[in-house]
Specification:
membrane, six-stranded antiparallel β-sheet, 8 helices, transmembrane helix, about 325 residues, alpha+beta
Length: about 325
């Protein structure tokens, strides 16, 4: 009986999931065992290596976003701030003595302040001393006298005059203040020197090294004024004092305080010691050390501010 070449319906293959590729050759007959015959001709096109896909296009050049306006503004602000800091540093160089050229110019300008600035600016009519008294109490001082400017002749005791002589005296300004109770008086002085920055640093170093500001024989002399609470403020009434050679301006600031009632003080004490808590000397107990230091602090700060403002305006 001949073997049928048609596929057995039981053994018929399942329909493929994907559509079959169209073929032109007739389906090869199966053998008696049901296996397809081994092909002897060239391979079917379905088994040939696929054609390689085309090469992907080259990556385009990276896109550079346009600079944002905010970044440009930020960069400009940083530049302005940086320039301002440099300018501020240059201005500070005059006060700190970091620039030789600016220091020399600043010293020349500061040396002439005494005849360019009103007396009420150099020596304000009142000085507020918040927390400047003993135990942190507030103090307030009122100016009662201003001495005519002079050339320092006879203004200091000989030992102090000798100690200050290396810097020379260009001009001396003095004023006297009284406290709110009218019980203490304080003379403050500003000696404008002829020295340069190096000379002032040398003087300051010597005062610090030899502790000259604590020597009783180097006490400044007071300025007494008739008809005021300081009328009896003489050499014997000197109780506490401070002397400060400055290095940012060619000026020596000093103060000396005493009792307004004219009493003699047998144990004068430098302000740096009289303000220490627990001191039992008359100057310390009466707060005269606080007066000397408080008045000196405020006059010195005002002088530095005036000098700095004058230098800024001249630029």
């Amino acid at each position: 009986m001949p073997v049928s070449t048609e596929a057995d319906p039981v053994r018929a293959p399942l329909p493929p999931v994907v559509p079959p590729r169209p073929v032109t050759a007739p389906r090869a007959p199966r053998t008696a065992s049901g296996a397809p015959p081994i092909p002897t001709g060239p391979p079917s096109p379905a088994f040939r290596d696929p054609v390689p896909p085309p090469a992907p296009p080259a990556d385009p050049a990276p896109h550079r976003p346009a600079r944002r306006p905010g970044r440009t503004v930020a960069a400009a602000v940083c530049f302005v701030l940086g320039f301002g800091l440099l300018g501020g540093a240059a201005a500070g160089a005059w006060l700190t003595g970091d620039s030789g050229e600016r220091t020399a110019t600043g010293y020349a300008e500061a040396r002439s302040l005494w005849h360019e600035i009103p007396v009420d600016t150099l020596f304000p009519r009142t000085l507020e001393g918040d927390g400047a008294g003993p135990g942190g109490a507030d103090r307030r001082w009122t100016r009662i006298a201003v001495a005519p400017d002079d050339d320092c002749a006879g203004a200091f005791d000989p030992p102090l005059a000798k100690a200050l002589s290396p810097v020379g005296c260009a001009r001396l300004l003095r004023a006297t203040y009284v406290d709110e109770t009218s019980s203490s008086v304080t003379t403050v002085g500003m000696m404008f020197t002829k020295a340069d920055a190096k000379g002032m640093r040398t003087l300051r170093d010597r005062f610090d090294r030899e502790d000259l500001q604590r020597r009783t024989d180097l006490m400044p002399r007071p300025h007494a004024a008739r008809g005021t609470a300081a009328a009896r403020f003489g050499d014997a009434q000197r109780a506490s004092w401070t002397i400060r050679p400055l290095t940012d301006v060619p000026v020596v600031v000093y103060t000396v305080s005493g009792f307004a009632d004219g009493r003699t003080v047998g144990d004068p004490q430098p302000a740096e010691e009289a303000v220490i808590e627990g001191q039992t000397t008359a100057p310390a107990q009466a707060g005269l050390g606080h007066d000397a230091r408080g008045v000196a602090d405020r006059i010195e700060r005002g002088l530095r501010r005036i000098a700095a403002e004058g230098t800024e305006q001249d630029r």
